[in-house]
Write the structure tokens for this entry.
Amino acid sequence: MTISVMVVDDHPIWRDGVARDLGEHGFDVRATAADADAAIRIARAVRPDVVLMDLNLDGSSGVRATQSITGELPETRVLVLSASGEHDDVLEAVKAGASGYLVKSASVTELVDAVRRTAAGDPVFTAGLAGLVLGEYRRMASAPADDQAPRLTERETDVLRLVAKGLTARQIADRLVISHRTVENHVQSTLRKLQLHNRVELARYAIEHGLDDGEDPDGG
Amino acid sequence: MTISVMVVDDHPIWRDGVARDLGEHGFDVRATAADADAAIRIARAVRPDVVLMDLNLDGSSGVRATQSITGELPETRVLVLSASGEHDDVLEAVKAGASGYLVKSASVTELVDAVRRTAAGDPVFTAGLAGLVLGEYRRMASAPADDQAPRLTERETDVLRLVAKGLTARQIADRLVISHRTVENHVQSTLRKLQLHNRVELARYAIEHGLDDGEDPDGG
DNA sequence: GGATCGTTCGGGGTTTTTCCCGGATCCGCC
DNA sequence: GGCGGATCCGGGAAAAACCCCGAACGATCC
């Protein structure tokens, strides 16, 4: 019995090339799609055994499409293709229900083999990724739920923003029209809440959490 | 007269698909290569009219290969293919002597047309890129050379990296096995060179210039 | 050999930050 | 009315950061 496949990729050359390769190796390429919405719609109608999903469709909507398809069609397995090395997206795809992962640098032989194994329900992962997924799982299991940010008051946030820009307590006091001792108190309580130790760590925290304005320290 | 083409890409599926597409459209695909060294060597022997060069070979060696080939073989034109949006690499490729640029999301028709025009000596640039190159040229012409980062010594860079992680002078001194006064001196000279005023600004500078290790301030 | 530069160490000073307090007002909530 | 939280102001003290200075050593270049 032939395996039905759907190819999703926004690069026409790649898409058609893969479709032809698979066709020549005995697969039934029922459909192709160039974007996430088309992929979801067509998959719903065609119900292929395997969806070959490119991860970097415009945006990272490949993940979204994977989620929709695996959610709606439990019989359909999604084999994710990626330009390799994009760890975050790949992990997202796995969470979204992808049955396997293959780098785009794979050969035709590897591709054909991977599609066969995916159709058979065999999870396909390149060497590096298995360890990556395991590591991520371990990380999640060990760190239960501490990632919720402590709540800063409005004033503390004001001060933090300015600290992250490199202003001293006196400069911040001038801007906010308060005493520099008050600024220092806000800094102190913020340090306690965030369990940090100095202004540099505060600045890093602000930058990583999008609290900074992204301006250059110098006059520009 | 047929146009001879060489295809350089580290993805076998893509490479062979493109080769086949071009072959079916009347081009003479003389050779393919998967990495920069092979590309240079084979191009030297084959002397194709057009080289289809993938920009993201391992590393950014696509630029290097482009430079070698255009330098050695003035008759051979290099048409660069890229996953799109990688402005820096594309500009590098243009500087390296590429005759044109095409995004990988192009259709087969566009590819065929682009190769024909490249062989005819007609520069091929997608809409966005022409403006990009012009803008870059204008920027270089107007701003002679003031945007170059001041040079920090190796030790200053070491200290900067650790400052950006939120360590105090004493902590840095312990790590580098020097006196904390020496650390403070390095901080001072770095502040002067970069025209900054305190450690928070140093941290921002380090982060924006990729000098930090991207670790969380807290224990994690 | 002399000049320059990077790296190291330190003196001596001011400013800022870090940390612990107490006290005040305002505002919402039980 | 009381209670807690947010905001504000301050004292005091230790640590750290900031700023300028000289000095020594080794390496490199002319």
